[in-house]
Task: structure prediction
Amino acid sequence: MTTSGKPPKSDNGAVDRLPETMASDRLILRRWVPDDAAALCAAVEENLDHLRPWMPWIAGEPKSVEARVALINQWTNEWERGGDVVVGVLMDDVIVGSTGLHRRRGPDVLEIGYWVHRSYTRQGIATELSSALTTAAFTVPGIERVEIHHDKANEASAGIPRSLGYTRMEETKVAVTSPGEVGVDCRWQVTRDEWARLLVAPSH
Result:
């Protein structure tokens, strides 16, 4: 089961803050805080080669603990203003990845992004966290659609939305930003009504 509280208002009261804590059968998802910086640095450094083909931000890694604290504070400030939320993925108090909800696709859409530690792939973690985030996204007033995007070459990522019952939409040519990409963005989506039906009669 997935749990999440009703989103609080942002500092200016204009936009609902995105959920900051979620839980599923095996996972705790919570916003990163400065005390996580050293452990997050270690997790990222353990996954540089694993993530480099698909994650453009890896070009700026590794970071110092101080730089990581600054980045976490930046994420916090954005969340407090009603923007994106970036959360750690923990299983038995161990960091197994990072994920988030992003407002970059329009006012009624949230996009899920994620990465999973190389030692925990092929264990259903990306699917489980994406399910938790989808449910949490629809607790936010005004959100009618959740999307997952991936490069066409990243077939492993395609399996996540497919297994959750998302619909594969169009493919769009985009700039290549990471070495594993072919520059074709694949968009998957699920609507609020579709997700409600899937929760009652799951197809996965």
In short: Residues 21-143 form a domain with the Aminopeptidase fold (CATH 3.40.630.30). The chain has six helices and eight strands. The mean pLDDT is 93.
